[in-house]
Structures are given as C-alpha cells and as structure tokens.
C-alpha cells in the first residue's frame, strides 16, 4: 500500500531512508514541492528512491463506487477531515503572521518615537548652545555690528525681546512660579548683556605693579568656636566691611571688620555650614542664605534694628524666615542669581534646584555626577556646575540640559572640583582641583590657561606639593585679576596670565573673596579660625 494514497501503487518505489512504499508519481510531486519525504523531515532525492518490479504488474483497483450510502459517508468524512485540517493549518499560519506583523509595527513605532525624541533634544541643545554663544559674543560685539544689527548677539536680543513682550502681555497672576522666574531671568540677562558691552574699568583700580608689593594688612584670630575649628565659607558685602562666614561649628557669623567684632551669630543648623551668601550685595538690611551638611537651606531676615545706630547699640541680628528641604543629601553649595530674587543650590547626589527668597523651590534638576560646586553665569541664564569626578558642566536652567561638559582635571587622583567662578566679562570661568587650576573660554569651549601646583612660586622651599592643594579661585570685579587659594594665596593677572605675588595666609586656607570693586584688598579664611586681609603696600 502506498503511504501517500493508501492504495496499491501502480508504479511502486521504496525510500532508502525509511523503507516506506510510495506511488512514484505522488512521491515525485511531493519531493518537488517540499524536498522532504512525506510525514518526515528527511531530505530525499531521486537517487535515494528504489523502483520495485512486480510480476505480474499490479492492477489498479477500481475506484470506489458512490452508489451506496456507506461509500458516500466515507467520502464525505474524508473530505471533511481534509477541510478541517487545512483550516487548522491556515489559522496557525494566520496567527503567526499576525504576531510577526504586530511585533514589526511595535518596533517601528518605538523607533519613530526614539528618533523624534533625539531630534527634539538635538534641536533644543543647538538652540541653547546658540544662546550661550550669543551671550558670550556680546562681550566682543563691534560698533559695526551694532549699526547693521546683523550680529548673533543682536539676533539673540531680538528673540529675548519677543519673549519678554509675550510674557509682559500675560497677567502676572496667571503665570506659574517657574514662568515668572524665566521672565525675570530673561529681563535680567538682557539688561546685563547690554551693560557688559559698555562696561568700563572701575575708577581707582589697583595696578599690577601695586599688587607686586602686596602684603598682609590685618589678622583676626579666633572667629567661631574652638571646639570645632574651621571656617569653611566666606562672603563679603559690596563695601567689604561685613564678612559673612560659615564654620564647622554649625554656625554662621557676621563680622564687622571696621569695628573688629562679631555682630551676629546665626544658629540653627545641626551640621557644618557648607555655604553662606549675602542677598543683593549684602549689608545690615539684607537677607542671608545658608546651606549645611544637615540637608537644609535657611533664609534669614534682618531684624528691624539692623541699622547703623543699631550696630552701635549692639542690637543687630538676623532671624530665621524659611527652611528649605529640597535635597535628600548634603547641600554643598549656593549661588545667588544676578537679579537678587532667586538662588541656586546643589547637593552631593547630583540634584540642583532654584529657589525664591520666600522659601519656595521653583525649579529642580539632576545630573549624573555628584556635585561639589555651583555658580550662576553673570547673565543668569546658565549654571556652572563642578562635579566630584572632575568635570565642569554648563547647564541651561530652562531646558534642564547640559550644554557643555569640560574635563577639568588631567590627574587620575584628586579630581573633585573644589572651586568654580565666572568672570564678570561673561566668557572666562575658572575651575580648581587639588592639583591644578584651569581657565576656560566659553566662546571656544577650551582651556585658555592652566596652572599646576608646581607652576606657582612659593615664599619658602619647605612647602611640599602634597600640602599645597588648590581650594578656590576668584576673579575680581573688573575681570583683570585672578586670586588662587592653596597653602598660599597667589595673585595673577588675567591678561597674559602673569603671576604678580604670593601671600602667606597661614595654614589650610579654605576660601577667599575680593573686598571691593577697585581690587585693592583680598580677604581669606582658614581652618585655624583666622581671617586675614591682604593689599598693596
């Protein structure tokens, strides 16, 4: 019997692989279509088929007659079985094709979404970078570009003006706090960018020759408490007469330099003070913002008695107005926005935020690296962020995107950014790590100059490189001088990056600040609880 037809074959053949008997005609047709032996997965060719010679030849049986009911039922049953089997096979193939099509459509949709998101991020990054370059370019805008109005800076100002006009037409009470911040930041940036183009050298600015003869002017000992020594932060008011310091003793203090006394102690934090800043340039009538390792930020309001007469009567002080707990880890740094109405904070877990002075958090963001420093660009549109893994990032506050990432450390060890400060010219900023100081040009996004510990002269040869780590760098208001803090304080000239003087500020300097717009005095604080001032002879 033939395996395929179930009838006696007229031309029988045998498969050499399975030994089954087939009708040659049917087997040949099946092999041509499928290439395998029926009901098996064996590959079969004509060479593997053996013809069977029967004597006498087999006689083809008569076809079944359909004249009887049993014969009809048998035929109908066979046809039904074949139809059901074919339908089942078609359903299986249909389900498989449908599943493959569904998966292909899903993958195509996901790919389109990813491409669209990447294109959007690319366009936003290009726009933000163009804005950054336009802000930097305003410093070097020529009179000709002002006349024809075709410079990149002019275009940027037109865009800002349009944005401000749109915001101005919207009722203030209908804007969200975040939109209010963006409007204020854009207004401030427009004003400061224009003013920076016309910016002149302050009258009475100290000369480079004067700083070559600089020496120590005053020494104040025993600020803060001796049980937990160490002054970690320093911020001077615009007159240079009030020094705001933050210590390892969990307190912030306001020291009146002319009266040589501490006029207020701000208590409330439970761990060391990591940052302390004056608002609006500082003064007896201005607020103070402090940050601590206890994960909190505090805003302090001046007392009504904070006047000159109150200072003489020793009745001045600041009271706690708001406590902000926007971070879940240690807050490491603060920066006041140029408009004086907002400030930024950063924590070691990579989170940063912008807050209003009424204690509300307006914007929150995060980067992938632990943060050690944060500072607003002088125009207020961007943030400079230093990380513990040796990078400086320029962040667009509105887009919450990193516009530029700069590798600030060439050393494998001690990569943490210990200082970050923008020059008032708008395109230079300085970064410090333990082993080197780098000056960056935002217009070109590359280093303009670098100092290592061994590049700077020392007053004595006994100071070792291991004990001479950079902790801070500060441009003066004019943008013509740069002060570097290590085991010594170094004064350098921005033009040509020449070294002017080296000053002994005691052991373990932690922070420094220029005392006035004329750059005739610089103040430092140290881990030995001392405050020193230096100036030309």
Automatic annotation (TrEMBL):
Keyword Cytoplasm: no
Enzyme Commission designation: 2.3.2.27
PROSITE patterns: WD_REPEATS_2, WD_REPEATS_REGION
Residue ranges of WD repeats: 266-301
Alphabetized GO MF terms: ubiquitin protein ligase activity
GO terms, biological process: DNA repair; mRNA splicing, via spliceosome; protein K63-linked ubiquitination
Keywords tagged on the record: DNA damage, DNA repair, mRNA processing, mRNA splicing, Nucleus, Spliceosome, Transferase, Ubl conjugation pathway, WD repeat
Cell compartments where the protein resides: Nucleus
Cellular component GO terms, alphabetical: cytoplasm; Prp19 complex; U2-type catalytic step 1 spliceosome
DNA damage keyword on record: yes
Pathway(s) the chain acts in: Protein modification; protein ubiquitination
Residue ranges constituting the U-box domain according to the UniProt record: 5-66
Chain positions covered by the region annotation Disordered: 136-157
Reactions catalysed: S-ubiquitinyl-[E2 ubiquitin-conjugating enzyme]-L-cysteine + [acceptor protein]-L-lysine = [E2 ubiquitin-conjugating enzyme]-L-cysteine + N(6)-ubiquitinyl-[acceptor protein]-L-lysine
Superkingdom, taxonomy of origin: Eukaryota
Bias (Polar residues): 136-153
Family: Belongs to the WD repeat PRP19 family.
Subunit structure: Homotetramer.
Function of the molecule: Ubiquitin-protein ligase which is mainly involved pre-mRNA splicing and DNA repair. Required for pre-mRNA splicing as component of the spliceosome.
Protein name listed in UniProt: Pre-mRNA-processing factor 19
Species this chain originates from: Coemansia erecta
């Amino acid at each position: 019997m033939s395996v395929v037809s179930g009838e006696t074959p007229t031309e029988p053949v045998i498969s050499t692989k399975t030994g089954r008997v087939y009708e040659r005609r049917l087997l040949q047709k099946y092999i041509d279509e499928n290439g395998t032996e029926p009901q098996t997965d064996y590959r079969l060719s004509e060479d593997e088929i053996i013809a069977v010679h029967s004597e006498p030849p087999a006689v083809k049986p008569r076809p079944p007659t359909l004249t009887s009911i049993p014969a009809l039922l048998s035929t109908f049953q066979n046809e039904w079985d074949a139809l059901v089997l074919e339908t089942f096979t078609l359903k299986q193939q249909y389900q498989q094709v449908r599943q493959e099509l569904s998966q292909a459509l899903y993958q195509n949709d996901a790919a389109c979404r990813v491409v669209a998101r990447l294109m959007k991020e690319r366009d936003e990054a290009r726009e933000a970078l163009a804005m950054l370059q336009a802000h930097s370019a305003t410093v070097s805008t020529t009179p000709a570009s002002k006349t024809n109005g075709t410079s990149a800076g002019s275009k940027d100002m037109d865009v800002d003006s349009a944005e401000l006009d749109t915001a101005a037409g919207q009722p203030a009470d209908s804007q969200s706090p975040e939109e209010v911040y963006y409007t204020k930041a854009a207004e401030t940036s427009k004003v400061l960018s224009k003013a920076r183009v016309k910016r002149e050298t302050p009258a009475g600015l100290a000369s480079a020759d004067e700083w070559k003869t600089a020496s120590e002017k005053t020494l104040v000992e025993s600020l803060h408490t001796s049980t937990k020594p160490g002054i970690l932060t320093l911020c001077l008011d615009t007159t240079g007469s009030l020094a705001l310091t933050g210590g390892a003793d969990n307190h912030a203090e306001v020291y009146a330099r002319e009266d040589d006394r501490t006029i207020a102690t701000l208590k409330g934090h439970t761990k060391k003070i990591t940052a302390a800043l004056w608002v609006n340039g500082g003064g007896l009538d201005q607020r103070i913002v402090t940050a601590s390792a206890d994960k909190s930020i505090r805003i302090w309001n001046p007392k009504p008695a904070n006047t000159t007469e109150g200072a003489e009567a020793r009745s001045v002080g600041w009271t706690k107005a708001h406590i902000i707990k926007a971070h879940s880890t240690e807050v490491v740094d603060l920066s006041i926005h140029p408009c004086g109405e907002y400030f930024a904070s950063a924590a070691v877990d990579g989170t940063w935020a912008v807050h209003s002075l009424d204690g509300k958090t307006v914007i929150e963001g995060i980067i992938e690296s632990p943060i050690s420093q944060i500072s607003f660009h002088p125009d207020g549109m961007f943030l400079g962020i230093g990380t513990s893994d040796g990078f400086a990032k320029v962040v667009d506050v509105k887009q919450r995107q990193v516009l530029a990432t700069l590798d600030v450390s060439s050393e494998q060890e001690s990569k943490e950014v210990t200082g970050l400060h923008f020059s008032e010219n708008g395109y230079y900023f300085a970064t410090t790590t333990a082993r080197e100081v780098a000056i960056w040009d935002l217009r070109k996004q590359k280093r303009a100059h670098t100092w290592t510990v061994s590049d700077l002269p020392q007053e004595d040869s006994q100071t070792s490189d291991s004990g001479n780590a950079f902790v801070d760098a500060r441009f003066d208001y004019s943008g013509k001088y740069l002060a570097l803090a290590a085991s010594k304080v170094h004064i350098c000239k921005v033009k040509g990056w020449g070294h002017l003087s080296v000053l002994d500020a005691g052991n373990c300097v932690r922070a420094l600040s220029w005392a006035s717009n004329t750059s005739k005095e610089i103040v430092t604080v140290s881990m030995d609880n001392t405050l020193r001032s230096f100036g030309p002879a």
